[in-house]
Amino acid sequence: SDHMENIYGYLMKYTNLVTGWQYRFFVLNNDAGLLEYFVNEQSRHLKPRGTLQLAGAVISPSDEDSHTFTVNAASGEQYKLRATDAKERQHWVSRLQICTQHHTEAIGKNNPPLKSRSFSLASQGSANSPGVQRRPSQNAVSFFNVGHHRLPTGKRVPIMQPDHLVDVREMMSQAEGQQRDLIRSIECLPASGHLTSLDQDLLMLKATSMATMNCLNDCFHILQLQHASQQKGALPAGTTISWLEPKISLANHFKNGAAQNFPAEINKPASVREEQSSAEPCQLTREPEEINPDEELEDICDDKEDDLGAVEEQRSVILHLLSQLKLGMDLTRVVLPTFILEKRSLLEMYADFMSHPDLFIAITKGGSAEERMIRFVEYYLTSFHEGRKGAIAKKPYNPIIGETFHCSWRMPKSHMAADAATSSSAHSLSEQVTLCKDAEGRAEQECYTVKFVAEQVSHHPPVSGFYAECVERKMCVNAHVWTKSKFLGMSIGVTMVGEGVLHLLEHGEEYTFSLPCAYARSILTVPWVELGGKVNINCAKTGYSASINFHTKPFYGGKLHRVTGEVKQNMTNTVVCRVQGEWNSVLEFTYSNGETKYVDLTKLSVTRKRVRPLEKQGPCESRRLWQHVTESLRDGDIDKATEHKRALEERQRNEERLRAETETPWCTKYFLKDGDGWVYHKPLWKTVSAAQTQQTDSN
C-alpha cells in the first residue's frame, strides 16, 4: 500500500527542439492510473496541462545518463523526463512501474490475453481469404477511436485494449493482401508498351508500399514485445527500442517473393561472436601510448567511394528508413544501413584533411603575419577536397567511445627548403610540390614529420578530438568537433560544432577556426556532398582575420561547391586577399597588389599518410577495430558487414551500461576536458615552454 501512494514533485520535461527542457509539476494519480503535469505547483487545482494513461505503458530509464527516463503510453504518446539525480529518478521509475503493472493487470482480468501471431509479407494469400475478411462493425472510424472505451467500473480509460489489437492485426492482414495484389498486378504488366512493369513510377510505388508495410509490421512487433513484457513484469533498467531492420530482404522479395531470415546466433561468423564476447574493452587500456614513427608504413589503402551499385540495389531500404524519419529529426541515435558507409572511421577522415602536409608546414615559413594568414587560408581551403573519398556521398563509421587513430606524414627538409627559396606570391605552393618517392628511406632527421592522433572522447554527444604537430617547425593544431546530423527531407545535414586552434610557436601566434556544415543531397538517386555555411579564422595577436563562405546551390541555377572569402587586417579594415572558386576544383586568389594565382585542387599532389600495420595496432585503433566491417564491405557482403557493425555497437552499449551501473566515469586516453573543449594531454606548446624554461634555468 505504501508503494501505491500518490506522489508529486518537479521534473524537467523535454518539449521540443526550440523550447528544450522545462520544469513542470508532476502528479502520479495511482487510483486513476494517470500521470498528470501542471505548469507549477500553484496551478495544481486547475486542469492539467497534460495527462498520460499508465495502463499498458512502458517506463524506460535512459542509458544516456543517470537522470533521464521516458514514459511511453500505449496510445503512442511519450514523455521524456529528467530528475535532479539518479536516486530521484529511481524513485519515480519504480512508483510508475508499480502503478503501470497494477492497472495493466486490471485490464487483463476483463479481457482475453493477446494471442501471438506472426506475419510475413512474402506469404501467399489473397485479401478475399476468410482470415482477412473485415468484420461489419470494423471501419476506419472505429479503428482510429479504439483508444477510448469504458471499463466495467465506468472509468474512462484511453487505452488500446487487447481485442482492438486483434482488430489491428486483421486490418494489417487485409492491407498485406491488398499490397500483394498490387505488386502482382504491376508484375503482370507487359515488358513493353505504353505502361510496363518497369515503369519508374510503378517501381517507386512497389518500393514505398513495401517500406510502409515493413514499418507497420515493425510497430506491431514493438506492441507485441510491450504486451509480453507487461505479462512478465516491467522492462529492465536501461532497456531501449532500437531501429529494426526490415524483416525481409526487399531486393530479393521483388525478384522472387521469397523471404529471407536473419542468420541465427549459431550461424554468425566467429569473428562476430569474438567481437561480442572476447573483444578487449576499450576502457581497460587508457594509458597514453607513444607511437614509434619507425613502425609506421606508407598507407597503401585506396578505398574510393564511387560505387553506386549497393545504393541502387538497396533503394527500397532507404525508402523504408525515410518512412520512419521526420523533418528536423536528430539522427545522432539513428542506426543507418550498412551499405551507405564509407570504409573508414570518422577519425581517419579528419586525418585525411591533413593530406597536404607541405602546405601545412609552409604556413609558419611565411615572412609576415599577412603572408602566414593567407597561407593558412590556402591550406584550409585545399583540405576538404582530399577529405572526401570519391564523388558518392557516404558516411564514415561512427567512432566508438575510446576509439583512436594514429598516423604521420614525412616531408624531406631539402624539398621544403627548395620551396621556400623559389616560392612567390604569384605562384601557388601546390605547383611547386613534387612528391618525394625516396622519403621512405631517409633518416628521421632529414625529414619534417607531422604526427596526428584522434580520439572519440564522448559518445553522447558524439565528440571527437584531434591533434597534429610538427616538432621541427614548432607548430601544432588542436581541435574538437561535435557532429550533429538532422534529416532535411531529401537530404541530411551535418553541423560540425566545435573549434580548432593552430599554434605557430616560432611567432607566438594562435589561429582559431571553425568548420563548415556538410550536406548529403539527393539521397534517393545519386547522393553527393555539399558544404555550406560561414566560417571564420582569427589571429588575435596580429589582428588578421578571414571570413569564408561555402555557398550551397540555389534552387534555380547557380554553381555547385562555390566558395568565396576574404582576408583582412582588422585594425585598418583593409582587405589583403580575396578568394573565389570551387572547394573541390579550382580556387582563385587575388591579392591587394593586383596579382592573381590559381590552385587546381584536382592536380594537387597528395602525400600518403603512414600507418602502423594492423597487427601492431591496439584493439581500439580505428582500422583494427573496424577491420571486419571494412573487409566485408570490400567483399560486397553487406549482411556480414552489418553483423560485425552490430556486434561492435552492442559491445559499446553493454560497456556503457556497466559504467552507469557501477557509477564509473569514462576516462579519456589522449585528450583532457578544458572548459567546453578538449585539449591534447601533451601539446607542443607545453613541451616547448617547459624546454625553454629548463634551458633558462641551466644558463
UniProtKB/TrEMBL annotation:
Q: Which CDD domains match?
A: PH_ORP10_ORP11 (cd13291)
Q: Which UniProt keywords apply?
A: Acetylation, Endosome, Golgi apparatus, Lipid transport, Lipid-binding, Membrane, Transport
Tell me yes or no: is Membrane among this UniProt entry's keywords. yes
Q: Please give the GO cellular component terms listed in this UniProt entry.
A: cytosol; endosome; Golgi apparatus; membrane
> Domain named PH: which ranges?
4-101
UniProt-annotated location(s):
Endomembrane system; Endosome; Golgi apparatus
Q: Where is this region: Disordered?
A: 104-136, 637-658
Q: Gene3D superfamilies, per this entry?
A: 1.10.287.2720, 2.40.160.120, 6.10.140.1150, Pleckstrin-homology domain (PH domain)/Phosphotyrosine-binding domain (PTB)
* Bias type Polar residues, positions: 117-136
A single GO BP term for this record reads: lipid transport
Q: Name one Pfam family in it.
A: PH
Q: Does the keyword Membrane apply?
A: yes
Its chief place of residence is membrane
Recall the GO molecular function terms of this protein's record.
sterol binding
Tell me where the signal peptide lies: none
Q: Which family does it belong to?
A: Belongs to the OSBP family.
Q: How does it assemble?
A: Heterodimer with OSBPL9.
Q: Give the function comment from the record.
A: Plays a role in regulating ADIPOQ and FABP4 levels in differentiating adipocytes and is also involved in regulation of adipocyte triglyceride storage. Weakly binds 25-hydroxycholesterol. Interacts with OSBPL9 to function as lipid transfer proteins.
Task: Please identify the protein, giving its name as recorded.
Answer: Oxysterol-binding protein
Organism for this UniProt entry:
Platysteira castanea
At the highest ranks, the source species' classification is: Eukaryota, Metazoa, Chordata, Craniata, Vertebrata
